[in-house]
Amino acid sequence: MNRTFPPLNALRAFEAAGRLGSFKEAAAELHVTHGAVSQQVRVLEEWLGAPLFERHNRRVVLTPAAKTYLAEVGPLFEQLSQATARYGLSEAVFRPLTVNAPATFVLRWLVPRLEHFRTEHPDVEVRVETSNEPVEALKDSYDIVIRGGPDTFYGYSMRPFLSEERLPVCSPALLQRLPLRTPEDLERHTLLHTSSLPRVWPDWLAKAGMPLLRPAAVLTFDHFYLTLQAAVDGMGIAMGPTALVSDDLAAGRLVAPFDWPRLPSRSYCTYVADAKSADDLILLFCSWLEREGDAFAGAGR
């Protein structure tokens, strides 16, 4: 007998979206992104040659034919789950842990420490995407979003895990060419800025008692990781967050000519949708982040 089966991943996405009435909620249940659910539904629509949902701005509504189809397909997934359970097989389905975080944080703090997590939990696949979009503006559903804080977002729980301060940093070679004995010596140097952080240097100079200091030059980058790389390359002096430059300071790629004053900075926090707040895998990763943050604080960096 020749059997006709639709793409099963696409069918699963359709069943979840149709049952929940939302691509976003289906993505959360299936532990994939909103875009992945939308793509799988399109695959099934193309395979069937007919639309399954009517799109109304942010809402989706099943077509009359799709309602009938869902009524027949839905129970099959429940029967499959029950049959699997009766045979003593695990109902757990492998899924990756999806994390969204700012690029500079990922490059300079998370990536160097991810091997610790992989060693402790080799069976967990972590997928990291970078962006600076606000939590509520993210189009896809992630297990964990890392941003500055603490902030409050409706529908999300927040946990701080890493604190830091900001202070001037530069390459040792630059310091040899143009020594920095006092903050006033900064007027002989190039100050490195990031366009999204225009107040960092003015605020530090004001705290150092030199609000009117004019440096020899100013160089501005659109991404903070470029600013820090320029400091490593000896192009000037950057305001370095202690958490993100700690490894560079320890390795001697950067030095901090002044330990005071230190500019307060926002903490790094995890933001998790309330619907996922009890997820064991998410809690595992958040707890690991907090242990790494405590270790950083305990090292006095």
From TrEMBL:
Residues annotated as signal peptide: none
Keyword Nucleus: no
MF-aspect GO terms: DNA-binding transcription factor activity; sequence-specific DNA binding
Keyword entries, A-Z: DNA-binding, Transcription, Transcription regulation
Domain HTH lysR-type: 6-63
Family classification: Belongs to the LysR transcriptional regulatory family.
Protein name: Transcriptional regulator
Species for this entry: Caballeronia ptereochthonis
